[in-house]
TrEMBL record:
Protein name: 3'-kinase
């Protein structure tokens, strides 16, 4: 799997392979620099590599080489972790860092990105899931339809901003990896800050309200609009988990959606 790329790009293996559901990764050295060789196993990862290349190291890791399913990326070597920060008393600062990184990614670029995925297509699984399961998903789907019909501040989106996708690159700061190459309202990109199931406190309403104030201020978003995106995104996430099926994570996502819906009604 890795050998052809190791030879082609003159790479030296520098760690154990990392296997995920969507890609195969290998820490390597390239021209004495730490890098990550990533071989995509699905179409979203291939799209993501093109977006990383388009950002050209501004707010995201540099792409050193790219061919077919394989991409050679700048590797994060910093010791800090946003997830660890969020779980150890620095939750507010972690959210601010996520917002600042997203803002860099949303900045206008002169060159166009060919064929990004529109948010309308990204949300295509929510309405059928709402029809099947009803309840909270019905409310989330209705909100998503309203948002998608009237998108504001449309830009290229990362699509999966969360604590494990913004990494410490030391002197280069906090940079993004693993985007989805979406196009739509920028507010969407801040919803997943509230929905990272790796963070146990996401279902705490008090924590939710505190982060809502922080993220809406840092990202310059109207709190109501952000709440709507959180509800829509959490509903979509629940729909995906129900399709797997992963009932426990679906319920976590729907709990976040219910908190957002309750805040919208208050």
């Amino acid at each position: 799997m890795f050998s052809p790329h190791l030879d082609r790009w003159s790479l030296i293996s520098d760690g154990e392979p990392i296997i995920t559901h969507s890609s195969r990764l290998l820490p390597v050295l390239w021209q004495d620099r730490p890098a990550m060789l990533k071989v995509a196993a699905d179409i979203d990862e291939r799209y993501g590599a093109l977006l990383m290349q388009w950002w050209d190291g501004d707010g995201a890791a540099y792409v050193y080489a790219h061919e077919g399913d394989a991409v050679l990326l700048e590797r994060a070597t910093g010791k800090r972790s946003l997830l660890a920060m969020a779980m150890n008393g620095e939750d507010d600062e972690a959210s601010r860092i996520l917002c600042r990184t997203a803002a860099r990614l949303h900045a206008p670029r002169e060159k166009p990105l060919p064929d990004p995925i529109p948010l309308t297509r990204w949300f295509r699984d929510l309405e059928p899931a709402a029809g099947k399961h009803g309840g909270t998903l019905t409310d989330c789907s209705a909100i998503a339809n309203v948002l998608l019909a009237d998108q504001r501040e449309v830009t290229i989106l990362h699509g999966d901003i969360h604590h494990d996708n913004i990494l410490d690159f030391e002197a280069r700061g906090w940079l993004a990896i693993d985007p989805k190459r979406l196009h739509g309202e920028r507010g969407f990109d801040f919803a997943n800050i509230f929905a990272n199931e790796e963070l146990p406190v996401i279902t705490d309403p008090a924590r939710f309200r505190r982060q809502l104030a922080i993220v809406s201020a840092e990202a310059k978003l109207e709190p109501k609009r952000l709440l709507q995106w959180i509800a829509a995104y959490s509903g979509l996430s629940a729909a995906w988990f129900l399709g797997d099926p992963n009932i426990q994570q679906a319920e976590t996502a729907m709990t976040v959606a219910r908190i957002a819906l309750a805040e919208l009604e208050s």
